[in-house]
Amino acid sequence: MTSASSTPLQDMIPECGAIGIDIGGTSVKGGLLLPDGTRHVSVPLPTNLDSGAGVFLDDLAHWIGALGCTCPMGVGVPGVFAPGSRKLTDSPNLKTLEGCDLAQELGQRLGREAASIRVGNDANLAAFGEQWLGAGRGHDDMVMVTLGTGVGGGIILNGRVFEGPAGRGGEVGHIRIHEGELAPIACGCGNHGCLETFASASAAQRLARNASLPTDLSQLADAARQSAGPARDLLETIGMDLGRGLAQILILLDMETIIIGGGFGAALDMLKPGIQEGIRERDFTARMPQILEAELGSDAGWLGAARYGL
Length: 310
Ligand SMILES: [Zn+2]
Known about the structure:
alpha/beta; 6-stranded mixed beta sheet; binds zinc ion; 10 helices; Nucleotidyltransferase, domain 5; 310 residues; 36% helix; 13 strands
């Protein structure tokens, strides 16, 4: 059997193309992917929910309609879904859309079957995008970890995105890596010791500030690249915590590939020694996966959504 990741695009995508939509907290990204690999990326649509969900969905449908085709379509959205339906039930960044069945709402407005529109969790679909057309090409078992405001994640098993019944699969940011005195900062989820309180971009900025180092993370990484010293030590410490979290995924799922994305992912060259040390500390099996930097940047979400729609 040929895995999806090695199937040529022209065998997967119909002639008219595939549409991918990535609804973010501030803007909607998306476009049309053609069978020859050409990407028609639309000018992002601001996620303006001030006038309510209905007006936003009208604008979104109009924006999608401008792509001029009714080809397969996937939509990524930051949130989780009611099991058994595709109603968005919990989306801290898009509260106004909670309770919405996006496939039905968009289907009605675009004059197409709701069943022809597939809606999934944005972090899971970004992982799917990287696996399809980015750093994960050819890797059917991988986890993608996104280092941004929080730590997001997506898991690909046997070339398929693992979602769980509500789209909650892959919440790697809330893996507990420390306890007690070592975990003084409360996570947004209410617990202490979550990976994201140690290894997100926001956590790195907090730790840099506490150590009187640059809080601009690209400056911090540059300082670490230039010479041994406090900046390099800090990135190694953060990398180690990331590795401790990743070790738990490896023990459970035995991944061959880990992809690191998000803005802070650009510091991967300086984080990697720590990541490997953290994995060695917590994973008794002495395996070491490939650790790669994401390639698609902010296009991963919509491309993964397009793949999901197929
Ligand atoms: Zn948490």
